[in-house]
Design brief:
8-stranded mixed β-sheet; about 20% strand; alpha/beta; about 950 residues; 27 helices
């Protein structure tokens, strides 16, 4: 696209879709010579005042020379980026590299002058802030370290863009102009500003989809039963508070209404604005519908249509085109192949989904990538919604289908500060951007519980991600470190969600158990032990216990300072003193209300009536007659649904469970989550090292990657790269002959080790491929002869000579980029402990000092590091330092996709890295470290 004189080809990797402050999207891309007409048209729509601020003088139109200058770039010293919507420019930014004299220059000059111009109609949308992030990343890539800008004092909006960005800057005033200079290296503040803007923008984009003022159903048929007609009916029956429109190009021209809803043949025919369009037409008709919506200014789409990536390669390409088409108009998409969205807020009452009934309003947010799982979640919450003083319901529900655009990450951004959501439940079949997910999960979990079921195995066809290479237990542990409550089934998801939505978090693992069945109490006790809780001896109230006795026992347990939570067990009882379900529910509620700081759970065996009564207790309505006992031959999820009851302000609902194991498992998750919340308040810090050469490492990595797309580094390059981060490895000198082995030993100094490094012998001292403490040349030559006699020729066993390290404990340190979990740091003891028993501990990168300390202590064989059976404790402080440096290396450079240090011999004083390997690859498109951008599909 550029002329032959240009120094670089078009940098397609600079193209990006971004979410703006108001929730709309724009595309950022380099400006080329083909953009002359777009640039002129854009400039004509800019006000005279904005032109004056840009050029410091009246400048009504661009000359041919200006157009040539602003569209011809070499993408090194002169770069221009444009933000576009609908293919047209809405803003531009450019930089020109300058020297110390302020004149045009080339590298090694590392300063550039930057200037913006934003169309007046799009000012205030955060376009300039997004462009600054991207032009700064481009400049860093081209070796520019500082930007300079001159701004008129009256141009306060642009001054604010620069000053609010968070970069280290200098400011001066001369000749009536504000002169700004700022470095482009990200700072803690600039990253915080960028992520805060990202959160607000992405949350707003989801909010526009969940709280529209008007909805058009595209594909609403005239005959009942179709998908579009069903969604239209669901919207009407839910009582949607906004305006509804039915759209179908097959409508007769004289059709004005459908089921009382205004009917139109095209979205273009709707006179009023449309915020959300629900698209339910065949896949081949979707492009036309998207174009109509985009031209009408629709803000977002829910695409229910199937026939996309889930159907194969052709469908995947159709899905790519759908995303590109919608984003070109600034629209976000839920779907395709989606089940729909629900918002139970009384101000909205949106049921733009295939769910025939509106869920009860409540405090639980639901996200499911699978429509079938979404149905199951809504159904189970509907049936299990009962609790003391009211019911638990749903705030918002999103089923994203193929999640080609809006993903779980976007929904987390929305839920983070959504006042209507207290607990987030998610079913994830894949995680597209694992680094970002763990970052958002950690932040969200610090404010409200996040419970996740992640589908095992490979991702569905509709999701363009790779499956994890880590064991299920490892992924679960890593998500827990980010504060995620990871469960395995939908049942456990609902069990945990109901408890967390209804009860306070426990302050510890001590559990009191009381009830009218000794056997059920013992089952609960054993379940607590299995889940790592600390149960107190069960209190048996006998089967004749009255409601008053339950009340008194629960009140005593809650007042006991040695108890952190209470599990109440109840079975059907026969006798004159046996309480009715409603009476027992009221007794438990009143006792729990007197001590609201501790969680209470109920285990009821075949007591459907109690589950119903628990939702009806203390209703503000007049007291009704006691409900008859419900059928007991129904499965848990088929119990009668309690009627909705408004919970009094400030009260907690008591969840009821049909089995002790389920109640205790939910409680154990709450205990672990509460512990994480306490620890997250002081998570430690990622230390700064004065001896880390991040810039030098980046240059080395860039040079190495220039050789190929992915490579395992040689020994010298490995040592050099690790050395940039203060990780010193002991030199191993190849010894293809006995004479060269002797010369290597002389250079290193005796004693030495002789090792066979062939893949089948590496790290296998048990096979005899390692000879240690060779004190002189005679021993070295003898050992060399023995190795070649046992295992083969030197070229087959690849012998090396290495200086002896101080004795200690052999460990292994690994870092890897996993497709599902992100960057992971792992630690264990070398040999059988890690290889055979899998005794490895893992942490998400970046690792803090507190996490490094806990990582070392998390493996089962950790006592060997701390003086087990009278051995000398090793230098764990040096080991923690090594872990932190490897974590920094991987976090700073996403091109480093694998690091293995094995063995790392940890001595009583210091450690020795005897073996190391590093693998590089081009960084992923979404590494969560650069400027904010939407995923590419």
């Amino acid at each position: 696209m550029q002329s032959a004189s240009d120094r670089h080809e078009y940098p397609a990797h600079w193209e990006a879709d971004v979410v703006l402050r108001d929730g709309g999207t724009a595309r950022i891309r380099p400006i080329t010579i083909d953009d002359a007409e777009r640039l002129v048209s854009f400039y004509e729509q800019v006000s005279d005042e904005s032109k004056y601020y840009r050029f410091f003088a009246p400048y009504p139109r661009l000359s041919d020379k200006d157009v040539h200058r602003f569209t011809h770039h070499d993408f090194v010293d002169r770069v221009g980026l444009a933000a576009t919507v609908g293919g047209e420019f809405i803003a531009t930014v450019r930089y020109d590299r300058i020297g110390a004299d302020g004149m045009a220059a080339s590298a090694p000059a590392d300063e550039a002058e930057v200037a913006f111009l934003v169309q007046d109609a799009h000012q205030g949308r955060g376009v300039a802030s997004a462009l600054l992030e991207h032009i700064a990343a481009v400049a860093r890539e081209r070796g520019i370290r500082r930007f300079a800008a001159e701004v008129l004092p009256a141009n306060t909006k642009m001054i604010k863009v620069f000053t609010d960005a968070g970069y280290t800057q200098k400011r001066s005033f001369e000749d009536g102009v504000v002169h700004l200079e700022f470095g482009l290296e990200p700072t803690e503040r600039s990253v915080a500003v960028q992520r805060a803007r990202e959160q607000r923008a992405e949350a707003h984009s989801v909010g526009r989809l969940l709280a529209p003022g008007s909805v058009a159903v595209v594909g609403a048929g005239r005959t009942p039963g179709g998908v579009g007609r069903s969604v239209l009916g669901n919207l009407r029956e839910a009582g949607f508070t906004g305006r509804l429109y039915a759209v179908n190009k097959a409508f007769p021209e004289d059709l004005k209404e459908l089921d009382g809803v205004p009917a139109h043949r095209s979205v273009r025919d709707i006179a009023a604005p449309v915020d959300l369009a629900v698209v339910a037409v065949p896949a081949e008709q979707v492009p036309e519908a998207v174009a109509e919506c985009g031209e009408h200014g629709v803000q977002g789409l829910v695409v229910l249509s199937a026939g996309y990536a889930e159907s194969g390669p052709e469908g995947r390409e159709r899905q790519r085109q759908l995303v590109r088409h919608a984003r070109a108009y600034g629209m976000r998409i839920i779907g395709p192949n989606a089940f729909g969205v629900i918002n139970t807020s009384p101000e909205v009452r949106l049921n733009a989904s295939l769910a025939p009934e509106m869920p009860r309003p409540g405090r639980i947010g639901l996200f499911a990538q699978s429509g079938a799982i979404g149905i199951a979640l809504l159904s189970r919450l509907h049936r299990r919604g009962g609790g003391v003083t009211g019911v638990t319901g749903v705030s918002t529900f999103i089923s994203s289908g193929n999640r080609a655009d809006v993903s779980g990450n976007d929904v987390l951004q929305y839920w983070y500060d959504d006042p209507d959501t207290d607990v987030a439940l998610m079913y994830l079949e894949s995680i597209g951007n694992p680094r970002k997910f763990t970052r958002l999960a950690r932040r969200t979990a610090a404010a409200k519980p996040l419970v996740v079921v992640q589908g095992a195995g490979s991702a569905p066809q509709g999701h363009a991600v790779r499956a994890t290479r880590l064991p299920h237990a490892t992924v679960s542990a890593l998500l827990r470190q980010a504060g995620v409550i990871r469960v395995d089934t939908i049942t456990e998801l609902v069990d945990a969600g109901l408890l967390l939505a209804r009860q306070p978090l426990p302050t510890g693992p001590r559990v009191a158990i009381l009830g009218n069945s000794e056997s059920l109490g013992l089952l609960t006790y054993d379940a607590c032990l299995s889940e790592g809780l600390r149960p107190l001896p069960p209190l048996d109230l006998t089967t004749e216990a009255s409601a008053q006795e339950f009340h008194a026992a629960l009140a005593r347990a809650l007042a006991d300072e040695t108890c952190d939570a209470v599990v109440v067990t109840a079975i059907p009882a026969i006798g004159e003193r046996s309480p009715e379900d409603a009476e027992l529910a009221e007794a438990l509620r009143s006792a729990a209300a007197a001590a609201p700081a501790k969680p209470v759970l109920v285990v009821h065996v075949e007591l459907g009536g109690l589950a119903t009564a628990l939702s009806a207790a203390t209703s503000t309505a007049p007291r009704a007659e006691a409900a008859p006992r419900a059928r007991t031959d129904m499965p848990d999820d088929a119990q009668p649904v309690p009627a909705a009851v408004e919970a009094p302000e400030g009260t907690h609902l008591i969840p009821a469970y049909p089995a002790a194991e389920r109640a205790v498992r939910a409680l154990a998750e709450a205990v672990k989550y509460a512990q994480w919340r306490r620890e997250a308040a002081d998570a430690g810090k990622v230390p700064e090292y004065e001896d880390v050469d991040e810039k030098g490492a980046a240059e080395l990595i860039g040079g190495l990657l220039a050789r190929g797309q992915g490579l395992t580094l040689g020994a010298d390059d490995t040592c050099e790269l690790l050395g940039r981060y203060g990780v010193r490895t002991r030199r191993a000198i190849p010894a293809p002959t006995p004479d060269e082995a002797a010369r290597a030993a002389d250079a290193l100094g005796y004693p030495v080790a002789l090792k066979a490094t062939a893949p089948h012998l590496r790290h296998r001292a048990d096979l005899g491929g390692v000879r240690l403490d060779l004190a002189d040349e005679e021993q070295l030559r003898r050992s060399y002869a023995e190795l070649t006699e046992l295992f083969g020729k030197p070229e087959e066993i690849r012998p090396v000579v290495q200086a002896m390290a101080p004795r200690g404990v052999d460990t292994v340190v690994r870092a890897v980029i996993d497709p599902a979990a992100g960057a992971v740091l792992s630690f264990g003891l070398a040999g059988a402990a890690s290889q055979l028993l899998g005794d490895m501990a893992h942490r998400l990168v970046p690792v803090t000092d507190r996490e490094a300390t806990s990582l070392i202590r998390s493996i089962r064989t950790a006592p060997l590091l701390f003086g087990w059976r009278g051995s000398t404790p090793v230098d764990t402080a040096a080991l923690e330092d090594l872990l932190l440096r490897v974590s920094r290396l991987v976090d700073d450079h996403p091109e480093v996709v694998a690091v293995t240090l094995e063995p790392v011999v940890v001595a009583p004083h210091g450690l020795s890295v005897l073996g190391a390997s590093v693998r590089l690859a081009p960084p992923p498109a979404r590494d969560d470290l650069g400027p904010r951008t939407l995923p590419t599909y």
